Amino acid sequence: MSIILNIETATKNCSVALAKDGITIACKEIAEQNFSHAEKLHVFIEELLSESNLKFSDLSAIAVSQGPGSYTGLRIGVSSAKGLCYALNIPMIAIDTLQLLAKQIQIEDGIIIPMIDARRMEVFTAFYDKNHNQIRNTQAEIIDETSYQEITETIHLVGDGTEKFKNTLTDVKFVFHSDVVFPSANEMSHLSFDKYQKCDFVDVAYFEPYYLKDFVLSK
């Protein structure tokens, strides 16, 4: 039996889930305008363990969302995962953030484009088929009226980055799934268990989040 702690902090959603053999048994999350990850993350972890009658020593591995996403959010999540893995001497698993968004919807045809807001008219995106297999590399791209003109299939859009394009991407092929806004640790359970079974771990000492863009200071 494996018990994996899943941590998702790449966006405004501070999300933590406990999973047993790939099935979520408990989840806590909160999405706030002002990032509260530093205050809420470890509180959520301790509460989940306590409510599930588990101890840190019961954990088999820790999975963390690797990005792309918020620089600050990713640093907090990855740093916390590294510290716990090092202290508990257990493996760390990295999960792609955009894949977590894509897996929140089921489609019969077309492609899924998850979008994470990267400020202004830019988003972090990737393409996934109906089976949630990635079919285009992750990119930071600026969206305008000419975007995705070459695609004739139905395009399913998910994520917090989609809202600002509802008046830009107006072709009937675009379907906005407004109920899917943020990635969640709840969606990590199956993915992290699959990687755990394959011993697909990352190096705790040298792993870095997938920022995609350089950190820019602002006033």
Count of distinct strands: 10
Could you say which overall geometry the principal axes of the C-alpha atoms support?
A: elongated
Strand content: 25-35%
Number of helices: 4
Q: Give Rg in angstroms.
A: 17 Å
* Helix percentage: 10-25%
H/E element string? Answer: EEEHEHEHEEEEEH
Query: Structural class, from helix and strand content?
Result: alpha/beta
Architecture overview:
- It is a single chain.
- Mean pLDDT is 94; it is low at 215-219.
- Strand 2 (13-20) and strand 3 form a beta hairpin.
- The protein has 219 residues and is α/β, with parallel strands linked by helices.
- 41% of the residues are buried.
- It has helices at residues 37-51, 71-88, 97-102, 188-197; strands at residues 3-8, 13-20, 23-31, 61-65, 92-95, 111-117, 122-128, 134-142, 155-158, 174-176.
- It is built from four helices and ten strands.
- A five-stranded mixed beta sheet has the order 3-2-1-4-5, with helices on both faces. Strands 8-7-6-9-10 form a five-stranded mixed beta sheet.
- Helix 1 (37-51) crosses helix 2 (71-88).
- It holds the Pfam family TsaD.
Brief summary:
This protein is α/β, with parallel strands linked by helices and 219 residues long.
Key traits:
219 residues; alpha/beta; five-stranded mixed beta sheet; 28% strand; acyltransferase; tRNA N(6)-L-threonylcarbamoyladenine synthase activity; tRNA (Adenosine(37)-N6)-threonylcarbamoyltransferase complex dimerization subunit type 1 TsaB; EC 2.3.1.234
